[in-house]
Write a structure and sequence with these properties.
The complex is a heterodimer of chains A (about 300) and B (about 350). Chain A is built from 10 helices and 16 strands. Chain A has about 300 residues and is α+β, with helices and mostly antiparallel strands. In chain A, the strands form 3 sheets. In chain A, strands 7, 8, 9, 10, 14, 15 and 16 form a 7-stranded mixed sheet that branches. In chain A, a hairpin with a 2-residue loop joins strand 12 and strand 13. In chain A, helix 1 packs across helix 2 and helix 7 crosses helix 9. Chain B is α/β, with parallel strands linked by helices and about 350 residues long. Helices cover about 60% and strands about 5% of the residues of chain B. Chain B has 16 helices and 7 strands. Chain B has a 7-stranded mixed sheet with strand order 3-4-5-2-1-7-6. In chain B, a hairpin with a 5-residue loop joins strand 4 and strand 5. Classes of the chains: A alpha+beta (about 300), B alpha/beta (about 350).
Chain lengths: ~300, ~350
């Protein structure tokens, strides 16, 4: 399969400047156009192992990220993200362009991909045991996710679980993992050989940088899997590692809160989430050291049906 | 590229021959026109779903699922409204999307809209507003200027929002602004409302429902959904035209309701855009009131640009200007200039200062 790593930086720029670069990201084909060198080099770094397709294919999202044609191109430069000509956000500083692209793609998926039940969570898998790790910002979900991936877990997503409505299968969409503030240094030190993209300073979420998903995860980005566990991670300084069972009813309530389109899917959404809870082991995980957290995750056994 | 939405609407079979690239354009054009979920139903009714490639089909299904839940929410809203109206000696008359849904009309599937619209007699407004307050609908937060504007010059109360469900409700007492040059009588509309089976819910009579949809399209400034609205009108007419006498009835009713000009334009563009066999604008209007040839040429240019060029992939030169002209026209039709200009100036400065 043709991957982005086989393209030179000039070719990537030409595509982005012209009819677009067709990125195959899990179930989504994304056509990206941009005249910004930061986007070209960012894609080359973070999406190197991803397949691409030519612009005559079908694309789920047509996105553009560029500076406006106003004075804001030079004076305190800003960038706009747009999907098929529509701009869902206010313009953001130009040096956040790569982060804006990632947020924009998340927005596209969350707003359009109602063929899936979408839960705000990280998803990882090892030895056929897939875990959904929901968590509000600050719970340490992305950091734990990056550390698990560093230890050979397969990345499905660090941002949202995509669950096929008919089959209940988790669909991988391994995109760059978003790290914030101290997490960037923590993962840099923890994960030897991690490919970390440029930092965006002073965003709404503080400093943000993205880690490229490992080749192994990208190669298997079309391999779906049933979920085995729902684990609510919580980083707590100085705390010993503890895994506690969480009742099915509590888990369901919390999943409803983390689900982007539970309301939009109505009954289908409710049944889908109930199925996840029925099928999975449900736990909370409190940890302070990444290694202990990972060890605890590796002790989770497959529930009987998986 | 051409407007594939119009192509697929006129002949759904033709869509099965689309290339993947054409499907890509079609999905984007339909999404922009708010028609993606409707096309799921159109293809389903023609037994064509199995012939659609999986990628575009996924988009149609996703939109359909979402619209389906939306319809459930609106039906719930209608049920709550009907409970509130049970306690009044007033009929609950639904307008637009909510009416199509309650009456299960073919164009109701796949519609996603924000507000539920109802029509009440002006004399009953206070009573209705109070009753709605008791049932949890309250006026949404607006400025004192906007409040005064609504109460004095508008055809509806300031929008209401339900405290718990956050749903929006527009209570109309007319179907166009009282300051507009057209003057369709609410009394005439209310005198011919039709009760839906096994409920205390009413809709306008078929002719009136169609004319309301027409006046909404041709006198409204929001041309973003012009294509969707024109398709609505076409679907309504085809649904009610079982005895082929509907166009004649529309002409008579338009005369009674002072809506001949909008009907003329609707028939003209239904014919020009969809090649609708029933549409003959020549029958719709007295020769005296017909727009003159220059005006017709201009309107053709504006409407057809706005309707057929709704997405960047099928936009023609001057489409932005056409939409702007129609926006100005709509405002002009709504209010005489001596009222409109101060209002627009106020709004412009208000936006600036925010």
């Amino acid at each position: 399969m043709k991957t982005i790593s086989q393209l030179s930086q000039t070719t990537i720029r030409d595509h982005l400047n012209g009819s677009g670069l067709g990125l195959c990201s899990g179930p989504f084909n994304i056509l990206i156009t941009s005249s910004l060198p930061a986007i070209a080099s960012g894609i080359q770094t973070l999406y190197a192992n991803f397949p691409y397709t030519d612009s005559s294919d079908f694309f789920d999202f047509h996105v553009n990220i560029d500076t406006p044609k106003t004075i804001r191109r030079w004076y305190r430069p800003k960038v706009y993200f747009s999907v098929d000509g529509k701009r869902p956000f206010k313009p953001l500083p130009k040096n956040h362009a790569l982060a804006v692209l990632e947020w924009g793609l998340n927005w596209c998926i969350a707003n359009q991909a109602h063929q899936y039940l979408m839960i705000h969570s990280a998803v990882v898998e090892k030895n056929g045991i897939a875990c959904i790790l929901p968590g509000p910002p600050g719970s340490g979900k992305s950091t734990l996710c990056a550390a698990l991936v560093a230890n050979g877990w397969r990345l499905f997503s660090d941002e949202m679980a995509l669950i096929e409505i008919e089959s209940g299968l988790l669909v991988p969409n391994p995109r760059p993992i978003s790290l914030k503030n101290q997490s960037i240094e923590i993962i840099k030190n923890y994960w030897d050989g991690a490919t970390i993209g440029p930092k965006s300073y002073g965003t709404d979420k503080g400093t943000v940088a993205h880690v490229a998903p490992p080749v192994a995860s990208v190669l298997r980005q079309f391999d779906k899997c049933l979920p085995a566990h729902v684990v609510f991670p919580k980083y707590m300084a100085e705390s010993p590692v503890t895994v506690k069972p969480l009742s099915k009813s509590q888990t369901l309530i919390q999943l409803v809160e983390s689900c982007f389109n539970h309301n939009g899917l109505g009954k289908t959404g409710f049944i889908g989430l109930s199925d996840v809870v029925d099928r999975c082991g449900c736990h909370t995980l409190t940890y302070s050291r990444l290694d202990e957290g990972i060890h605890a995750m590796e002790q989770l056994k497959a529930p009987p049906h998986v | 590229m051409s407007n594939l939405v119009i192509e697929a609407y006129r002949n759904p079979e033709a869509a099965t021959l689309f290339s993947l690239k054409a499907w890509d354009t079609f999905v984007r054009q339909s999404r922009k026109a708010n028609l993606l979920a409707s096309f799921y139903t159109i293809f389903e009714n023609h037994g064509l779903l199995d012939k659609i490639p999986s990628k575009p089909k996924t988009h149609l299904q996703a939109a359909h699922r979402f619209a389906d839940k939306h319809a459930t929410d609106i039906r719930w809203e209608i049920d709550k409204l009907s409970k509130a109206f049970d306690q009044l000696e007033q009929p609950l008359v639904l307008l637009k999307g909510a009416a199509y849904l309650a009456a299960k009309l073919p164009n109701c599937t796949g519609r996603v809209f924000q507000d539920t619209d109802i029509l009440v007699a002006e004399t009953a407004l206070t009573k209705v507003e109070n009753k709605l307050n008791q049932h949890g609908w309250y006026q949404a937060q607006i400025t004192a200027y906007d409040e005064r504007y609504y109460r004095r010059w508008s055809h509806e109360l300031p929008p209401m929002r339900h405290l718990q469900r956050k749903s929006l409700l527009d209570v109309h007492h007319r179907i166009v602004q009282p300051t507009a040059s057209l003057n369709p009588s609410t009394t005439k509309l209310l005198n011919s409302i039709q009760q839906l089976p096994a409920s205390n819910v009413f809709t306008l009579a078929p002719t009136d429902m169609i004319l309301h949809s027409i006046v909404h399209l041709f006198n409204d400034g929001e041309f973003d959904h012009a294509l969707r609205d024109l398709i609505d009108i076409d679907q309504l007419i085809r649904h009610f035209n079982t005895d082929l006498k509907l166009p004649g009835k529309l002409v008579d009713r338009a005369e009674q309701l002072d809506l001949e000009r909008p009907l003329y334009y609707a028939m003209r563009y239904l014919r020009l855009v969809f090649d609708a066999g029933y549409a003959d604008e020549g029958e719709c209007i007295h020769v005296k009131q017909k727009p003159n040839a220059v005006l017709i040429r201009l309107m053709d240019h504006l409407f057809i640009n706005a309707i057929e060029g709704h997405h960047p992939s099928c936009e023609r030169k001057g489409a932005d200007l056409a939409r702007w002209c129609l926006y100005v026209r709509a405002h002009y039709l709504r209010m005489p200039l001596h009222r409109l200009i101060p209002h627009l100036l106020y709004k412009a400065f208000q936006t600036e200062s925010h």
